[in-house]
Amino acid sequence: MTQTVSLSFYRFAGPLARVWALTMMGAARLPMARTPDIGFWKLCGSGIGEGFTPVPNTAVYAILATWPDAKTARQRSSEGVFARYANRASESWTVFLQTQTARGAWAGQTPFTPSAPQADGPLAALTRATIKPRILTRFWGRVPNISAMIGQDPNVAFKIGIGEVPWLHQVTFSIWPSEQAMAAFARTGPHAAAIRAVRDEGWFREELYARFAVHSDRGTWNGTSPLQKLEAA
Questions:
Q1: Alpha helices by DSSP H, 4-91
Q2: Is 144 strand, coil or helix?
């Protein structure tokens, strides 16, 4: 069996739906833990704009989970607590991924099992970091430039910043048409400078970097599947 990762995004319209989504950051923990076949999972909020900001977006939430295979992932991520989120949301989208490479840890665990071959074609990148409190100002001072840069990149099909705890825990997720397109972004400009600072100054207590093959998706985001942009490319 090939481990499959699901990353589900939910948009909530109106104050009542948004309050419900906020309370579920705590209330959903027990039903998530009891979900059949689920492995590693996390409930996340998001940032405004491109998502790579310290200001919370109260309209968008995400659930990341790992499953033993693609069939199980598609079934389980459409029922139980996932269905409760989808029923309350004004829009939802889930992307299914299979890990190509992963290094580092997330909350002391290594959640992603590499199994998909590295090949030409679309890929997704996820970084997760626990930021040291003493460098919060420096870290978030660099993020707006990176956010503006990725927002202007015509190659990126989808991008968002999410996290478990505002300011301290940051997850970035993006989808690209090719490894070459992603590398061109990562190795230039503000992003490259931030990577050097991370290494030179030791910004993170814990970090994880993973790359995935894009398997499939379900639902829409902003009225369409973000994967359609990959097909067009």
A1: 15-27, 29-33, 70-76, 81-88
A2: helix
Q: Sort strands 91-104 and 204-219 into parallel, antiparallel or unpaired.
A: antiparallel
Q: Rounded to an integer, what distance in angstroms lies between the CA atom of residue 120 and that of residue 177? A: 9
Beta bridge partners of 221: 224
Burial class (CB in 10 A: 0-12, 13-18, 19+), 130: buried
Q: How far apart are CA 227 and CA 209, in angstroms?
A: 22
pTM: 0.87
Domains observed in the chain? 4-217 (3.30.70.100)
In tens, the pLDDT along 189-198 reads 444 445 554 5
pLDDT digits (tens, 9 = 90+) for 155-188: 788 989 898 876 667 888 989 988 888 877 665 5
Rounded distance between C-alpha atoms, residue 89 and residue 14, angstroms: 10
Task: Name the phi and psi angles at 45, rounded to 5.
Answer: -95, -170
Residues in the chain: 233
